[in-house]
Design goal:
Blueprint lengths: L23 H28 L3 H27 L5 E3 L5 E3 L7 H9 L2 E10 L5 H11 L3 E9 L4 E10 L4 H10 L3 E7 L8 H14 L4 H9 L3 E5 L18 E3 L2 E5 L5 E5 L7 H17 L7 E5 L5 E7 L4 H10 L2 H8 L6 H8 L5 E8 L4 E10 L2 E8 L8 H15 L4 E7 L3 H8 L5 E6 L2 E7 L15 E3 L1
Antiparallel strand pairs: 1-2, 3-5, 3-6, 4-5, 7-10, 8-9, 9-10, 11-12, 11-19, 12-13, 13-14, 14-15, 16-18, 17-18
Helix pairs in contact: 1-2, 6-7, 6-8, 7-8, 9-11
Length: 479
């Protein structure tokens, strides 16, 4: 075997190809004529200066004109020799020269330099070689950058889903027309945000991880996976004990803008998206998340906060689940009829069915407050209601007016903001001034609807609440 040493590549100098000067005699003739012309002009000027009446004045004026011309030429040359070349950005952060060779650099990309916009677009193209290339060329012709691309195969075509960065002045209608001219059909566009910049496999793995850690995350994961949609989880038996029809088959059902999946806890999960049909790929992804949830079984993440009330008593705030059903029943028995009527908007004959539904992670999240001795004294519920979110509170009579309800409400609102909910609403009676005051204490924009003594207070969420805003005055210890 022989050892071969790598040698650096030779540096080559590009060869300049020059054309031979076949007509050099023409240039020489022109230069000779210029010399004779200059001599004649100089002789005429000399005679004018020497024999004319204003010869001295003309000589001084000519010298001044020559000095002024030389000064202007020097200033102009220095200014343009140090000027930087004109550049524009192409929307990706790279600068490109816009010299006069092309003549259209600034005119063609000046709009992009003023800003870009993110779009999500979905269109159906023919399943033929080159159809996607034609579509991409049409987008490139409008200076649209393709950030991500997903394909959803169909029986008679392919649905292509894009994340695009387009010039800010390009409208959705113009984008749709360009796609239609390139062969796209059933085009749908929607403004995107920074959350959509994560690629699809990473986003799906993140949703699967959240679902694996917390059973209450399944509806949220489905909503983030499928975009704007309405999710209804219907148990097989209603709160009154009546059967609610046949559950969905194990393999699920896909019907264009609606899909039905078997709920791991019994019943059916129905997902509707009227503005955009579901694809078989989306249906398979949603079914995989539901199957993962069924395989792992009921689960609630651990973790609790120990807080000290202003009077010195310690309470613990933690997530609650079906295992807290017995303690929740005992708390209901200790509550007065008025407290229960304010919570459930009427008398509660049998709280078992209500509590089993409320404590299930399938329908939302529940926070529990217990004393140092372990007795449950308050419950706060965050319930998924289609594309809306409801909050509800119940505090035992002897523990009211200590700030526990406000604490639970702030934490539930923070959970809703983390889940990217737009708003939360509370339904209560007009006489329940404590609940209304707690909603006002959130410091969020509120909407009120009052009808026959019932008040619906809706809080519009902005940024997630800070951790400090969800704690009572005093010491907080996380475990």
């Amino acid at each position: 075997m022989t050892n071969k040493q790598a040698t650096p590549p030779a540096t080559t100098t590009p060869v300049r190809h020059t054309r031979p000067h076949r007509h050099a005699w023409r240039r020489d003739l022109v230069e000779l004529a210029a010399v004779f012309t200059a001599v004649a002009v100089a002789d005429a000027l000399a005679n004018l200066v020497a024999h004319g009446p204003d010869g001295s004045f003309l000589l001084v004026a000519s010298a001044a004109a020559l000095i002024a011309t030389a000064a202007f030429h020097t200033w102009w040359a220095r200014r343009h020799s140090h000027a930087p070349p004109s550049t524009v950005t192409d929307g990706t952060g790279d600068a490109s020269d816009t010299g006069g060779a092309t003549g259209h650099g600034i005119a063609g990309t000046g709009g992009e330099a003023r800003g870009t916009a993110l779009w999500r677009m979905r269109t159906t193209v023919r399943d033929e070689p080159g159809s996607l290339a034609v579509l991409c060329a049409a987008l490139a012709g409008h200076r649209v950058d393709i950030l991500t691309l997903q394909t959803h195969p169909l029986a008679d075509g392919t649905v292509d889903e894009f994340l695009l960065r387009a010039p800010a002045q390009l409208s959705a209608a113009a984008l749709s027309r360009a796609v239609a001219a390139a062969g796209g059909a059933d085009t749908w566009t929607e403004r995107a945000d920074a959350h959509d910049l994560v690629d699809a496999p990473t986003r799906i793995l993140g949703l699967a991880t959240r679902t694996a850690l917390d059973a209450a995350e399944l509806p949220l994961a489905l909503r983030q996976l499928l975009g704007r949609c309405t999710i209804h989880s219907r148990p097989s038996v209603s709160l009154t004990g009546r059967a609610q029809g046949e559950p969905a088959p194990v393999e699920g059902v896909l019907e264009e803008t609606s899909m039905r999946l078997r709920d791991p806890g019994g019943g059916t999960i129905t997902i509707d998206r009227p503005h955009l049909p579901f694809t078989p790929t989306e249906f398979a992804r949603a079914r995989a998340l539901v199957e993962l949830d069924a395989l792992l079984g009921p689960r609630v993440p651990r973790g609790e906060d120990v807080l000290t009330l202003p009077e010195g008593n310690e309470i613990t705030v933690r997530r609650a689940g079906p295992g807290d059903l017995a303690a929740a029943k005992d708390m209901h028995e200790r509550c007065s009829p008025r407290t229960l009527s304010l919570r459930y908007h009427g008398p509660v004959a049998d709280a078992d069915r209500y509590l089993g539904h409320l404590l299930s992670p399938r329908y939302g999240r529940t926070l529990a407050v217990q004393t140092a001795s372990g007795r449950l004294v308050a419950l706060g519920h965050l319930l998924w209601d289609g594309d809306e979110t409801e909050v509800a509170l119940l505090v035992e009579d002897s523990w009211q007016r200590r700030g526990i309800g406000s604490l639970l409400l702030r934490r539930l609102t923070a959970l809703a903001a983390e889940a990217r909910c737009d708003s939360v609403y509370a339904i209560t009676q007009a006489s329940n001034t404590g609940m209304v005051a707690a909603m006002r204490g959130l410091g969020l924009p509120l909407d009120y609807q009052i009808e026959e003594g019932t008040v619906v207070v809706t809080a519009r969420l902005g940024e997630p609440a800070s951790p400090g805003a969800s704690a009572l005055p005093g010491h907080v210890e996380r475990r």
